[in-house]
Every structure is written in C-alpha cells, then in structure tokens.
Amino acid sequence: MFIFHLLVSLSLLISGLVAQVLPFSNDSAAGVIWTFENGTWIENLAVRQNGEVLCTSLSKAALYLVNPFEHVASLVHQFEPTEGLLGISEIGNDVFAVASANVSLATSQAYPGSAKMWKVDMVAWTLGQPDAVTLIANLTNVILPDGIATLENEIGLVLLADAAQGIVWRVDTTTGDYSIAIQDALFTTNNTLIPLGVDGIHILNDYLYFTNFGNNAFGRVAISVNGSATGPVDIIASMTIPDDFAIADDGTAYLAGDNSLYRYSPDGAVDILIGGPNSLVLEGCTSAQLGRTRLDKNVLYIGTNGGLLAPVDGQIHGGQLVAVNVGLFQNCTA
Questions:
Q1: Which of 41, 64, 119, 198 is disulfide-compatible with 161, CB 3.0–4.6 A?
Q2: Quick check: helix, strand or coil at residue 122?
Q3: What is the DSSP string of 88-102?
Q4: H-helix or E-strand containing 262?
Q5: Do 147 and 161 meet the contact criterion of CB atoms below 8 Å apart?
Q6: What is the value of pTM for the model shown?
C-alpha cells in the first residue's frame, strides 16, 4: 500500500511539473505563448538550444526573446526604425544571423539599398556585453531579404532569400561578402497584387526547400555544399500564400499562410491542421519553427502579425507567439 501511494504521489508530482513547463496542456492543440502590443508584426522565429524563442519584428524593428515555458518575453535589441527585421538563422553556438530592411508594410516593398545582415551573439547578450549585436554587411544589391538558411558544412555561409528579385543569395557572415547562389524563374512571381517571390527557405538532406509567396507554391532544389543548385528547381505543392515554414527530419513541412497551418507530407499530400482564411487562431501567421528540447519536441511555434494587413474581424490585434502540439496530428492524414 505504501508503494502504491508513493507511485501515485510521484505521478502527480511529475504531472504537475510537466504542466508547469510545457507551453500548453497535453490535450490542447494550440495555445498562445505571448501576445505583443498592437501593431507588432512578428516576421520570423529561431529557437535556441535552451528552448527560448527569438522573434523578429518587421514593424517594430526589434528582436524579442520569449521563454515559452514561463510565458515571459524580453527585448534583446531595438534597431533603428528603418531596420525592420525579417529572417533569422543560427550560424554558430547561440549566434544568429538576422536580416533587416526598410520595408513599407502597406506595399510589401523595400527601399533599395536598405538591406542589411546582422550578427546577434546571445552568449554575449546574456553576459551583458555591449557588442552582442554587430553589423555583418550592407547588402546594397539585395532588395527584400527574407528567409535565411545556414549551410551546415560551410562555416559562416548562409543562403538568403530575396523575395523582391526572386534570387537566393550566398552570404559569408565572417567577411560580409555575398553573391548570387541560385536564380530561377520559379523563384519569381508575376502576381502584381502580392509582388513577393521566394520567401521562406530551409535546408534538409542536400535540398533547399522554399516557398513562393506570390505564386502560392512550395518547392525544392538540390544544392551543393556551398548552396549552388545541382539540379532543377521543382514545385512540389500548392497552397494559398505560404510564408515561412519548418521542416522535420522525415520531410514533413509545416507552413504558415492565409491564417492557416498547412502540413505537407513527403508523399505530396497537403492538409490544414489548424486555422483557416477566416480564423482568428493563427491570424496573420508568418513563420513556424519546431521546438528543440525534450519537453517541446512535438511543439511547433508560430509567429503572427495580428492581422496587421488584413484583420479578420476588422480589428488589429497584437502579434503572437503560438504553440501547436503537432504530436496530436501525427497519426492523422489528409
């Protein structure tokens, strides 16, 4: 009897601890981690090794840090007002590359010559060092920098999507040098209402996966170790205005777009897990990243702009960091 009560007590204790650290209860499909003030457009996300989430803001020109387990947020760095933040990717141990540009939210166009790339050293930031954020390069030939993907086998090299020109650039974050890595017609768009082509990019198994925002497309291209194309660019799925995304090791991709969370399965099937065109749950969703710790390995974090451009209910809300328990959908297919 003593052993039985001991096991029950331990079970309750563990359940209580898990409830405190998980972003939401196990039986919830989605939960809001943090709501930013009205007018805050969260554009992209990066998850640190400790589970904290870095959130770039296009409208506030700021980099925020959110602890999803404690539901607290802090400001990492306030950039100049003309330096709206876009893509972000880890380039070293807790060191990140961040893209910025002077972007008109109303037209989705950037001022030529305003694109930049920054290095954010979170180790230095944690220690309170003044040089935690430094300029890597002025990217004067880049128009609208968006998604960033790190080339794991080439130290310091990243790929950068230019949504305005339909180009994927190669940037050396150690020297600031940059050049065209891939240029293809399938990276561009002829959509005059949404003049944005290649947007989100991620690398998996020697393939660069990408979204084309204006063309409602998701595609991929085989690449070399330095990011050059080694095969044709292929469109593998279609969905409405896909923005950034996360891709799991098995090739399953989770894409944010049109107030929806799309799932692309390696067999080519596409379904909507949460949300929809008129849904407030993921209003203005822009980005997605998978959790990195044992506690949130089945969690997908999603950034939103709160409907800043197209509010569902006629009201602008604060951008959010939302957590989705994708583990609940693992046995569900389209």
A1: 198
A2: helix
A3: EEEEETTEEEEEEE-
A4: strand 260-264
A5: yes
A6: 0.92
CB 254 within 8 A of CB 10: no
Separation CA 289–CA 57 (nearest Å)? 16
Spatial distance between the Cα atoms of 320 and 94, rounded to a whole number of angstroms:
23
User: Which tens digit of pLDDT belongs to each residue from 109-163?
Assistant: 999 999 999 999 999 999 999 899 999 999 999 999 999 999 998 899 999 999 9
DSSP 71-91: TEEEEEEE--TT-EEEEEEEE
CB 40 within 8 A of CB 56: no
Higher per-residue pLDDT: 57 or 15? 57
What are the tens digits of pLDDT across the range 285-327?
999 999 999 999 899 999 999 998 889 988 889 999 999 999 8
Helix (H, G, I), strand (E, B) or coil at 124: helix
Interatomic CA distance for residues 256 and 258, integer angstroms? 7
Distance CA 256, CA 242 (A): 6
Residues making up the chain, counted from first to last: 334
Q: Are 77 and 132 in contact (CB under 8 A)?
A: yes
Contacts 24+ apart (CB under 8 A), 308-314: 308/39, 308/41, 308/59, 308/105, 308/284, 309/105, 309/284, 310/284, 311/283, 312/259, 312/278, 312/279, 312/280, 312/283, 313/280
CB 120 within 8 A of CB 173: no
What is the C-alpha separation between 121 and 134, in angstroms, rounded? 9
Whole-angstrom Cα distance, residue 291 to residue 136?
A: 27
For residues 217 and 211, is the Cβ–Cβ distance under 8 A? yes
Q: Which residues pair with 321 in a beta bridge?
A: 34, 303
Determine the Cα–Cα distance for residues 224 and 322; give it in Å rounded to an integer.
Answer: 34
State how far Cα 26 lies from the chain centre: 23
Write the pLDDT tens digit of every residue in 44-78: 999 999 999 999 999 999 999 999 999 999 999 99
290: tokens are: 């998978």
DSSP 270-284: EEEEEE-TT-STTTT
One DSSP character per residue, 298-318 reads TEEEEEE-TTSSS-SSS---E
